[in-house]
Records
---
Amino acid sequence: MPSSPPMPTVSPGAMYPCSLGTWVRAQGDTYQVVADVSQFEPPDIVVTTSNCHVTIQAEKVAEDGTVCDTFTHKCQLPEDTDPLSVSCALTEMGTLVITVRRRASPGPGQRPQGLHRSEAVL
């Protein structure tokens, strides 16, 4: 699967599509990835972050054990995001909202923050 193009500079509150049913919004000092996963139940959805990428994977399994629906989306976040600030919430309407804060640039003589990976099951 090809990676998403780098996030363009956007005005606060602006939204732009990443792929079918997925949007990214810049709002103040945060970025939000918004995805429609209404066809899946919370246990079917897994969100992972690695470095500056967030991946959403969902899989619906039928009663007979066959996979009847899948959703996968990978989005590149700006390099100024704080990987330890990633959080996600699922609305009653089935919209997944992943929020990540921007971090301050390292000052002179400070080392940039290391790489991180995390996973959340809803």
---
Amino acid sequence: MDKSLAIDLPDHDFSSPGSTNKHVVVVMDGMTEFTTDTLQWALDNVVTAGCIVTLLGVMPWLNIPLFLKTRNVFWTEELEDAHPDPVKEKNGCGNDVKCLKRQAVIDLCRKYGVVLQKKIVMGYPLRLLVVEQVATLSPTWVVFDGSHKRNKDFYAKKIPCNIFMINGDGRVDMIKSMRMTDIPRELAPSTPQMTVSEESKNK
């Protein structure tokens, strides 16, 4: 992704001593096939080493047949290190697609030096569930995948932090930008570089 354009955001030291809330939440659709695209963008543009990154998968309540159908996907797997070992290979887990995908995410976050967390939540309505979870996690930045774009105005009103949204065509919209005076110095990361849509640039 071309990162030649920049949004004028507060330039602070996100890794300053004493900072205890260095937290970025990546909100994704828990019902679709997991990809690292949104996470990768957050790691490249928002996250700095040492912060916490929470992958938040959101889905509606599922009946038992649907839950059983989705229970083995990425979102319902533990984020333990999945590197193949002789025991796993002997049991046929060494080349398991789920294990490999999980390990790819772990390795990616390890490369960027961040602490990875994952959470899956179910409920309805989804947009209220998202706001509730974000309030509980208290992040400085929230990055949404494209599945949440229909609720972007609602999130802008309800979520009191910086918000970015990835569109299906690869563009990035800045949904909300907190002013320098609104963000405690110890919570604000350095200025991200990103590709933004014409709509966001006009704002």
